[in-house]
Amino acid sequence: MDTTYRAEIGRWISLLQEADESRLVAIRDVLCIKRLQWVEDNAAILVSLKGDDLERAYKLILYKIGIDEQEAPVAFKNERRIVFHSKNQCPMLTACMALGLDTRKICRRVLEIPTDILVKQVNEELRFSRNYNTIRPYSSYCEEVISFP
Predict the structure, then answer these.
(1) What residues does each domain of the chain span?
(2) In CATH, what is the architecture of 3-147?
């Protein structure tokens, strides 16, 4: 485990320790702002992504979190949705496990909307969601979906 990853785990632990619902919303809101700023600062990346809008949104998520397609392989794709299985090292997962928090609750409250905002930068009609019945540590991967309504 490298020092950057360890630092990210520590950051999440300090943010989530004793966080109530209003604190989770505040963390989410700050993350939304940071995601939009990141897209603005990295606009060239958005333009360089190849494929249809679903593929581009998937690649944008991978690029933003610094993983490759082997760590989050596509399990299904058609013209309306892409489903991928994230198996990468995840500082949020590690922090939740260390604090005894339920990833189903924390990931839904803190990460889903910022990731939805990220995919909307490719196409405002896109929607990001997770299958909270298939999420780590309760499963061997987190099932994530980018779709059109």
Answers:
(1) 3-147
(2) 2-Layer Sandwich (3.30)
Asked if residue 91 has a cis previous peptide bond (ω within 30° of 0), the answer is no
For the packed helices 91-99 and 3-16, what is the interaxial angle rounded to 10 degrees? Answer: 50
Please tell me the distance from the alpha carbon of residue 11 to that of residue 50, in angstroms, as a whole number. 33
Contact 110, 143 (CB under 8 A): no
Q: What is this structure's pTM?
A: 0.95
Q: What is the maximum span of the chain, computed from C-alpha positions, in angstroms? A: 42
- Please state, rounded to an integer, the average pLDDT across all residues of the chain: 97
Q: What is the pLDDT of residues 102-123, one digit of tens each?
A: 999 999 999 999 999 999 999 9
Sequence-ordered list of residues with C-beta below 8 angstroms from that of 48, at least 6 positions apart, any chain? none
